[in-house]
Design brief:
With 239 residues, the chain is mainly α. It folds into 2 domains: 2-86, no CATH class; 91-238, no CATH class. It has helices spanning 2-26, 30-49, 52-66, 72-86, 89-92, 95-120, 132-152, 166-192, 202-218, 220-238; strands at 126-127, 130-131. The longest helix has 27 residues, at 166-192. The protein is elongated, with a radius of gyration of 29 Å.
């Protein structure tokens, strides 16, 4: 049944193409020719898809263009709708959805690594004399800060002007990674004493590190300023 339906639609699509061809030869209006050209592309897609609804839409668009005077607005709307349907699912998403999709992939990879790593890898209590729990605290706080940053301005991504829509996806995917990296780096700067900060007792140390790591992931400007301060400090000592 499906085979015969597709075969019929393909036959009707070819007939529609012949009709468009004869119409385009007599059409003198440039806008009319443009819409007919777009319709040709859509008909070839409809023939492959085998969708009756899309075929009828294309027929309505053609009949609208062949009217006297032509109903170009109707044809434009149908062409626009057909073009939207041809897009892959990712391209139909809003920028905000693409960012969140990237964030979900980041979660997926992170949890996969945790599950795989947790089965056969035991975390030592100290790395180079520094408490592992503090390093993990800094990394986790940085990741949370970056996630909060994304979610708090997720609506703003729609205003971004970019031709490459994969930018949105990779923003959501790598923002937590960048935030975590900055947080751990700044944690190292503090523990090394390059940027002197009074950590106080153990309780205060945990809170200060959590706050600074969160800010490192949340604000690129904060992380950048902190890094520049460390750069100037190291540069001054080197000279």
């Amino acid at each position: 049944m499906i085979y015969f339906t597709r075969k019929r639609i393909k036959k009707e699509a070819l007939e529609l193409l012949d009709e468009i061809q004869s119409s385009s030869l007599s059409a003198s209006d440039e806008e009319l020719q443009k819409e007919l050209g777009q319709l040709i592309n859509h008909v070839s897609y409809i023939a492959r898809k085998g969708d009756d609804f899309l075929l009828k839409s294309a027929k309505i668009a053609l009949s609208s263009l062949l009217r006297s005077p032509p109903h170009v607005t109707v044809a434009k709307e149908i062409n626009s709708n057909l073009a939207h349907r041809k897009k892959p699912p990712y391209d139909k998403m809003t920028p905000s959805t693409k960012v969140i999709l990237g964030l979900c992939f980041c979660f997926y990879f992170a949890f996969s690594l945790l599950i795989v790593g947790g089965t056969g890898f035991k975390i030592p209590e100290h790395f180079f004399g520094v408490s592992s729990s503090l390093i993990l605290l800094a990394a986790g706080s940085g990741a949370i800060g970056s996630i909060v940053s994304i979610m708090s301005r997720v609506g703003e991504f729609s205003d971004m002007e970019t031709k490459d829509h994969m930018v949105y996806f990779f923003t959501g995917l790598f923002k937590p990674v960048i935030g975590t990296s900055f947080a751990v780096f700044i944690f190292c700067l503090i523990k090394a004493g390059i940027v002197p900060i009074d950590l106080g007792n153990e309780t205060r140390e945990v809170l200060v590190i959590s706050a600074i790591a969160f800010l490192s992931g949340f604000s690129e400007r904060f992380a950048s300023d902190f890094t520049k301060k460390a750069e100037s400090t190291i540069g001054a000592k080197a000279t």
